[in-house]
Amino acid sequence: MNKHECFPLLLSQRERSAIEMSFYWVTSKAAAADFLIRCDLSEGDLLAGFPELARAIEEMPDEDPPRV
After folding, report:
1. Would you say 8 and 49 are in contact if contact means Cβ atoms under 8 Å apart?
2. Prediction pTM value
3. C-alpha radius of gyration, the chain, whole number
4. Dihedral, CA atoms, 52, 55, 59, 60, nearest 10 degrees?
5. How many domains would you assign to the chain?
6. Would 9 be classed as within a structural domain?
7. What Å distances lie between residue 23 and 6, 11, 31, 35, CA to CA?
């Protein structure tokens, strides 16, 4: 069994907290995609383990706003 077959996502409280805290820097759907890659999470893992973060991503703009 590989790591993508483990369901539901098994993370320690420390790992969950680190992911949740890192997520606060995500400001767009494009940044969220990069975030998932850096955290080695699939969309399914995100939905199963972090449904509140998945809902937040749905409300984000597609791209980061231009910096002034």
Report:
1. yes
2. 0.73
3. 13
4. 70
5. 1
6. no
7. 23, 16, 10, 7
pLDDT exceeds 70 at position 40: yes
Best CA proximity match to 41, nearest among 2, 14, 3, 1: 3
Give the start-end residues of each E strand in the chain: none
H or E segment and range at residue 14:
helix 13-23
pLDDT for 23 beyond 50? yes
Residue where the block lists tokens 């449904």: 51
Residue 32's domain spans which residues? 25-62
Non-local (6+) Cβ contacts of 14 within 8 A are none
Instruction: Please tell me the predicted confidence (pLDDT) of residue 8.
Output: 57
Residue 2, exposed/middle/buried by CB under 10 A (0-12, 13-18, 19+)?
exposed
pLDDT category, 65, cuts 50, 70, 90?
confident
